[in-house]
Amino acid sequence: MDKLIFKASILIEALPYIKEFYNQTVVIKYGGAAMEDDKLKEMVLTDIALMKYVGIKPVIVHGGGKDITSLADKLGQKTEFLNGYRVTDKNMMEITEMVLTGKLNKDIVSHLNRHKVKAIGISGRDSDLIIAKSKGPEYGYVGDIVKINPKIIFDLENNGYVPVISPIATNENGEAMNINADIAASEIAKALKAKKLVLLTDVDGIYLDIKKPETLFSTLKVSEARRMIDEKIIVSGMLPKISACMTALEEGVEKIHIINGKIIHSLLLEVFTTHGIGTQIIHD
User: Fold this and answer.
1) Could you report the per-residue pLDDT of 23-75, keeping only the tens digit for each?
2) Region 267-284: what's the mean pLDDT?
3) How far is it, in rounded angstroms, from Cα 115 to Cα 194?
4) Which phi and psi angles does 24 have, rounded to 5°?
5) How far apart, in whole angstroms, are the C-alpha atoms of residue 175 and residue 143?
6) Domains and CATH numbers, the chain
7) C-alpha triplet 135, 141, 143: angle, nearest 5°
């Protein structure tokens, strides 16, 4: 009986958050180990299914960097990174789109469908959802987002579907462009005026010193984040994440969290508990 009472108390604790997020859009950037490990994948997508069933409108933007690298290696395609971005020539662009849109996107959709959640997989090229321009010749087909056309997402949401989006954009010539998934999620969250943006990563959040667990920020102000970028504390793959978060906050997304997707039911802990987990990024 005590266990049943404890379970009931957990549900009661979640009630204020269910009310707060009911019929609200939550954009989830899904990537890292939570996509690569089968048990973690099932856990995360079950969490998202539960969110949908209690009335939240989840929108998933996914990455897949390790899968891209794995296929590139098999095909003899060299992988290079510049300032946290994958340098993308024409061959790498084809590999990237094949992995993200052709394989991983449909895998996520299939998992959600097994939970009787209606999900539809699209890329940023569909209905010109994401329009981009070249980041620069040294990056190849890496794009900077110029515009988000969110109508297709609203249409899917209004018809009860969970949009699952691969971060492949189109340029003015109709060519595919590789977009950083964190930035794509941030820009989509802005365009949707999302209640919350959650970035799933492989670390517990933002640290002053990654080697010292006690330096984890539970809350990080934008001014502190800017200072850490200037002082090269935030570098490499975390840099696009934090920059995207700051932009999203400045343009209307209410709440942003960076959490560890390897923690059991991390999404539910973040959305439905009093203290949450990870690092919350806020205005000064």
Assistant:
1) 999 999 999 888 988 999 999 999 999 999 999 999 999 999 999 999 999 99
2) 86
3) 24
4) -105, 150
5) 11
6) 23-282 (3.40.1160.10)
7) 40
CB of 58 within 8 A of CB of 38?
no
Structural contact between residues 270 and 277, judged by C-beta atoms closer than 8 angstroms: yes
The H or E element containing residue 22 is none
Tell me, yes or no, if the pTM score tops 0.85: yes
CB 169 within 8 A of CB 176: yes
Q: How far apart are CA 166 and CA 125, in angstroms?
A: 9
**256, HSE (Cβ side, Cα atoms, 13 Å):** 31
* pLDDT tens, position by position, 92-118: 999 999 999 999 999 999 999 999 999
Tokens of 98: 């094949």
- Helix 38-53 crosses helix 105-114 at what angle (to 10 degrees)? 60
Helix or strand run (H / E) with residue 196: strand 196-201
Q: 16: buried, middle or exposed (CB in 10 Å: 19+, 13-18, 0-12)?
A: exposed
Helix axis angle, 65-74 to 90-97, nearest 10°: 120
Residue type at 222 in one-letter notation = V
